[in-house]
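WARN  no MSA supplied for this record, continuing single-sequence
INFO  ligand: glyoxylic acid
INFO  echoing inputs
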Amino acid sequence: MAERAKVVMTAMLPGAARRVLEAEHEVVAPAAGTMSHADLAAAVGDADGLVCLLRDPVDAALLARAPRLKVVANYAVGFNNVDLAAATARGVVVTNTPDVLTDATADLTFALLLAAARRVPEGDAMVRAGAFHGWEPELLLGADVYGRTLGIAGLGRIGRAVARRARGFDMRVLYSDPAPAPAEVERELGATRVGKDELLGSCDFLTLHCPLTPATHHYLGAAELARMSAGAYLVNTARGPLVDEEALAAALAAGRLAGAALDVFEREPAVHPGLLASPRVVLAPHAGSATVAARRRMAELCVGSVMDVLAGRRPRHVVNPEVYR
Ligand code: GLV
Ligand code: GLV
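INFO  complex generated
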């Protein structure tokens, strides 16, 4: 059995994660809520493992404070919060939690798309406020979803799961991705690959599923938003900085876009005031993977990754495989 090591967890995770880790290792975790960055910086000094959240920047400075660290298990599929090059240079294995949250995130993507198109939050607020005075021919009219065109930026696991749902709505599915999907995947999804400009110009709904990297930062800025049709909607359940929020708020205010549904924000947890003020925007608190089952399985993956590395095994979901070379 591996020697008892010290593992820092920046939040209490759902399920038995902590108990399972504690059976073999010493665990340092906040009793409730999340660990501040200052507390994390203090705690990693003699840590062998770290389980962290997407809100925890694991940068070169933090890694430099953790000379014993062998593994960073990020409780998310996205890992833009981790400086991979710095981790790899120090021999630190970085893992993520793909697959187990794909369907949960695709479900929320569709929930938000429908909510924006059919103005669900506005209707809810209206009824609660006592402002529903009876059926009217033009009360809260929205946009059709069925049979319209869905543009998917990034046809990875989540993008594909969204495309599968779109088939049930008889949508035409276009996608843009640096790498074409295999022909059988395109066939199964009924998805056609187009260039980014065509994607922007052709879709009624645009949904973002690309990873956040320097190349995808502000994937959607003023110029890109200007290519979209004035009747189109944007859905973002990926990462906030893919979108220039200032440009999005301006486009919505000018009526150059019909609406947006956002689960993620450029400066999370802050939200651009222009988006907060817009009735055309549906907002969610970064909840894509927030189902009981998905979050529990993400916790199991993180715990498994840490136990694997500390026992000398290679975990399943390593995002910096070059660390093994
Ligand atoms: C959530 O945003 C994730 O990347 O898992
Ligand atoms: C994430 O799991 C993705 O590939 O979209």
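The two ends are 25 Å apart (CA to CA).
INFO  checksum written, moving to next record
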